[in-house]
Amino acid sequence: MVRALRAKLHGLRVTGSDLHYHGSITLDPDHCTLAGLHPTEFVDVWNKNSGVRLTTYVIYGDPGSRCCVLNGAAARSCQLGDELILAASHDVQPEALYDHQPRIVTFTPDNGVDQVLQYEVYASDRYSYDFRIVDVEHEETVATVHNYAGVDVGAIRGELRTRGLNDQEIEDFVRKYLIR
Questions:
Q1: Which one from 17, 21, 24, 50 is the annotated catalytic residue?
Q2: Domain with 48 in it
Q3: Which of 66, 75, 130, 139 could form a disulfide with 19 if both were Cys (CB 3.0 to 4.6 A apart)?
Q4: If pLDDT is split at 50, 70 and 90, which confidence band does 112 have?
Q5: Nearest 5 degrees, angle CA 57-CA 61-CA 66?
Q6: With pLDDT > 70 as the criterion, what percentage of the chain qualifies?
Q7: pLDDT of 144 above 50
Q8: pTM above 0.85?
Q9: Is residue 66 part of a domain?
Q10: Is 24 assigned a catalytic role?
Q11: Candidate list 57, 65, 89, 119, residue with the active-site label
């Protein structure tokens, strides 16, 4: 057995904290649904600003709220606006990795969804267990996705569309400057 990533929220910003709540992390259920996170599921939380790492469980807040509220003892580990990575994992047999496709949701600075990605393990000519990232919305494999702080890929696509670029020109731009 290996412990493998099952779901991830990447770049979610802290919107609040409540030291005197029962404990846990309160998240927008819409975000959780995109990644496949469940209520009461344990997640690892990594604070990109402070380096703090902790484990807690998910509870749902209001749909559409874009919330990320650390409760109980975890409230001491963050400040408003801190950027977090939340990861859920599970145990799988190595051969099951080929069918394992965790969802990764990346976020804009206001906790809007930026990208929905999927990790895939496959057998290549070079490795028995190779790896690729797939942009779910655009159904394309990308080598590396750069989630630059403060960059909203969806907004960039929209701006390029208003400037008259067609879908292919927009995707060419995104591939050249944002995805490598």
A1: 24
A2: 2-91
A3: 75
A4: very high
A5: 105
A6: 88
A7: no
A8: no
A9: yes
A10: yes
A11: 57
